[in-house]
Amino acid sequence: MNLTARSVSRALIVTTLAVVTTGVTALVPIGSASAASTLGASAAQTGRYFGAAVAAHRLGDATYTGILNREFDMVTAENEMKMDATEPNRNQFSYGNADRIVNHARSQGKRVRGHTLAWHSQQPGWMRGMEGSALRSALVNHISKVAAYYRGKIYTWDVVNEAFADGGSGGRRDSNLQRTGNDWIEVAFRTARAADPGAKLCYNDYSIEDWSAAKTQGVYRMVRDFKSRGVPIDCVGLQAHFGTGIPGSFQTTLQNFASLGVDVQITELDIAGSGAQQADNYRRVTQACLAVARCNGITTWGIRDTDSWRYPGVSPLLFDGAGNKKPAYTAVLNALNARN
Fold first, then answer.
1. Can you give the residue ranges of the GH10 domain (predicted)?
2. From 80, 87, 209, 268, active-site residue
3. Are residues 234 and 202 in contact, defined by beta-carbon separation less than 8 angstroms?
């Protein structure tokens, strides 16, 4: 964040920028008393964060790191905190690459979302062959050790990731973790709370943005049940990997989860398309979060298009491969500043 530039902008500059986001040219005041010039700074003025997923091996890229340092105030490790990375051998933990990300974020005054403590995918080889009580014991040990290691350094943990099945059943995914017993998610949350009591604890999933979807309803029922029984869940993460359209009920979904007494976070945002269409969809997502008081913030899954897991087929992020701001960036910044 360029604090000097922000101060000058706020105090002295009043200009007008023509921005095309929906096919209509709108005049947007820039540099007014409430406007900020970066995503993180503007989101902070609304009481929210704006973050990005970060890969340790890209931290040596000056363009990548420059955008990260300037624009974002929350950091999620793309892969470095997952189970295979942090416990490659049973009860032998490895934090080197995760530490690189956490230490960089904290040195820049940024917070960290921990991703993820329990997931059916990207398990280490030794865990994939386990089942029953042995697997349950290994899961509890993993969560306890990793969450305790980072205790006090993590804003939110994605405690459990993608535990619900795709399709119309609204039920749990059939995984080795699920087969240890239907209470495994509850156990994971209770274990995480004991290990890191100061962190928010999140359930995170994809394709739960449409309120009418069976998967969304399944997650909603679980969260409602957890809240009714005192299971320590603080938030729901909606990944928001979108195509060229946004569900019309997206804001309703955010609000309905929030009404259960949990925060909601947009955790892995990327949107297909280009130009004005993509910009308008990013605007809609940002405005949906801003409209829900308990929507804490937004994280994009990557920084530049070329860093995205969806590239080269899709260019879904706010910066192009050269690090230039896209129309979608301007749409998001304007939407944030409109609420400041």
1. 33-335
2. 268
3. yes
State yes or no: cis peptide before 232, omega within 30 of 0: no
CA pair distance 308, 300, nearest whole angstrom: 10
Our answer to whether residue 268 is catalytic in this structure is yes
Q: Which of 328, 197, 213, 199 is nearest to 273 (CA)?
A: 328
Place of tokens 């939110």: 156
Task: Name residue 28's amino acid.
Answer: V
Q: HEC states along the chain? A: CCHHHHHHHHHHCCEEEEEECCCCEEEEEECCCCCCCCHHHHHHCCCCEEEEEECHHHCCCHHHHHHHHHHCCEEEECCCCCHHHHCCECCECCCHHHHHHHHHHHHCCCEEEEEEEEECCCCCHHHHCCCHHHHHHHHHHHHHHHHHHCCCCCCEEEEEECCECCCCCCCECCCCCHHHCCCHHHHHHHHHHHHCCCCEEEEEECCCCCCCCHHHHHHHHHHHHHHHHCCCCCEEEECCEECCCCCCCHHHHHHHHHCCCCEEEEEEEEECCCHHHHHHHHHHHHHHHHHCCCEEEEEECCCEHHHCCCCCCCCCCCECCCCCECHHHHHHHHHHHHCC
For residue 239, the one-letter residue type is: Q
So what's the pLDDT on residue 228?
98
Q: pLDDT, tens digit, for every residue of 247-286?
A: 999 999 999 999 999 999 999 999 999 999 999 999 999 9
Among 198, 192, 295, which residue's Cα sits nearest to residue 238? Answer: 295
> How much is the average pLDDT of 53-66?
98
**């040219």: which residue's tokens?**
25
Pairing label, strands 25-30, 15-20: antiparallel
pTM for the structure as a whole: 0.89
Residue 10 has pLDDT above 90, yes or no: no
Q: Kindly report the backbone phi and psi dihedral angles of residue 216, in degrees, each rounded to the nearest multiple of 5, phi listed first.
A: -60, -45
- Angstrom distance (rounded) from CA 97 to CA 57: 8
Res. 20: pLDDT tops 90: no
